[in-house]
Amino acid sequence: MARGHQKFQSQQKNAKKQADIKKSKGHDQKAAAKAALVYTCTVCRTQMPDPKTFKQHFESKHPKSSMPPELVSVEA
Q1: Distance, CA of 6 to CA of 40 (rounded, Å)
Q2: Cα(34)–Cα(45) distance, rounded to whole angstroms?
Q3: What are φ and ψ of residue 11, in 5° steps?
Q4: What 8-state DSSP symbol labels residue 71?
Q5: Of 4, 28, 31, 67, which sits 20 to 30 A from 40 (CA to CA)?
Q6: Taking Cα atoms as reference points, which of 61, 48, 60 lies closest to residue 70?
Q7: What's the chain's Rg over C-alpha atoms?
Q8: CB neighbours (10 Å) of residue 55?
Protein backbone atom coordinates (compact mmCIF):
# COMPACT_ATOMS: atom_id res chain seq x y z
CA MET A 1 0.00 0.00 0.00
CA ALA A 2 2.41 2.58 -1.19
CA ARG A 3 -0.41 4.98 -2.05
CA GLY A 4 -2.45 4.41 1.12
CA HIS A 5 -1.86 7.79 2.75
CA GLN A 6 -1.87 9.67 -0.54
CA LYS A 7 -5.15 7.99 -1.52
CA PHE A 8 -6.74 8.96 1.79
CA GLN A 9 -5.61 12.60 1.36
CA SER A 10 -6.94 12.65 -2.18
CA GLN A 11 -10.34 11.33 -1.03
CA GLN A 12 -10.56 13.96 1.71
CA LYS A 13 -9.61 16.73 -0.72
CA ASN A 14 -12.22 15.54 -3.23
CA ALA A 15 -14.92 15.28 -0.54
CA LYS A 16 -14.19 18.86 0.57
CA LYS A 17 -14.27 20.06 -3.04
CA GLN A 18 -17.62 18.34 -3.67
CA ALA A 19 -19.09 19.81 -0.47
CA ASP A 20 -17.98 23.31 -1.51
CA ILE A 21 -19.56 22.86 -4.93
CA LYS A 22 -22.81 21.68 -3.35
CA LYS A 23 -22.83 24.67 -0.97
CA SER A 24 -22.13 27.17 -3.72
CA LYS A 25 -25.01 25.89 -5.84
CA GLY A 26 -27.49 26.41 -3.02
CA HIS A 27 -30.43 26.22 -5.38
CA ASP A 28 -33.06 23.55 -5.55
CA GLN A 29 -34.52 23.01 -9.00
CA LYS A 30 -37.83 21.79 -7.62
CA ALA A 31 -38.27 24.85 -5.43
CA ALA A 32 -37.40 27.20 -8.29
CA ALA A 33 -39.96 25.54 -10.56
CA LYS A 34 -42.62 25.77 -7.87
CA ALA A 35 -41.90 29.46 -7.32
CA ALA A 36 -42.37 30.12 -11.04
CA LEU A 37 -45.97 28.85 -10.96
CA VAL A 38 -47.73 32.04 -9.95
CA TYR A 39 -51.18 31.75 -11.59
CA THR A 40 -53.73 29.29 -10.19
CA CYS A 41 -56.85 28.22 -12.04
CA THR A 42 -59.94 29.01 -9.98
CA VAL A 43 -61.83 25.98 -11.29
CA CYS A 44 -59.33 23.10 -11.09
CA ARG A 45 -56.52 24.65 -8.98
CA THR A 46 -53.88 23.90 -11.62
CA GLN A 47 -50.89 26.23 -11.46
CA MET A 48 -49.40 27.99 -14.49
CA PRO A 49 -46.29 30.14 -15.00
CA ASP A 50 -47.75 33.02 -17.05
CA PRO A 51 -51.09 34.61 -17.97
CA LYS A 52 -50.92 33.51 -21.62
CA THR A 53 -50.69 29.84 -20.63
CA PHE A 54 -53.38 30.41 -18.02
CA LYS A 55 -55.77 31.84 -20.63
CA GLN A 56 -55.08 28.99 -23.07
CA HIS A 57 -55.71 26.49 -20.28
CA PHE A 58 -58.95 28.19 -19.28
CA GLU A 59 -60.24 28.33 -22.86
CA SER A 60 -59.49 24.68 -23.57
CA LYS A 61 -60.32 23.04 -20.23
CA HIS A 62 -63.20 25.21 -18.98
CA PRO A 63 -65.05 26.59 -22.04
CA LYS A 64 -68.42 26.76 -20.25
CA SER A 65 -67.09 28.68 -17.24
CA SER A 66 -66.89 32.45 -17.34
CA MET A 67 -63.44 33.92 -17.91
CA PRO A 68 -61.79 35.45 -14.83
CA PRO A 69 -61.45 39.26 -15.11
CA GLU A 70 -57.64 39.16 -15.02
CA LEU A 71 -57.61 37.07 -18.25
CA VAL A 72 -59.97 39.18 -20.35
CA SER A 73 -57.27 41.60 -21.51
CA VAL A 74 -54.56 38.94 -21.99
CA GLU A 75 -53.77 38.10 -25.60
CA ALA A 76 -53.28 34.36 -26.20
Answers
A1: 56
A2: 14
A3: -65, -40
A4: H
A5: 28
A6: 48
A7: 25
A8: 21
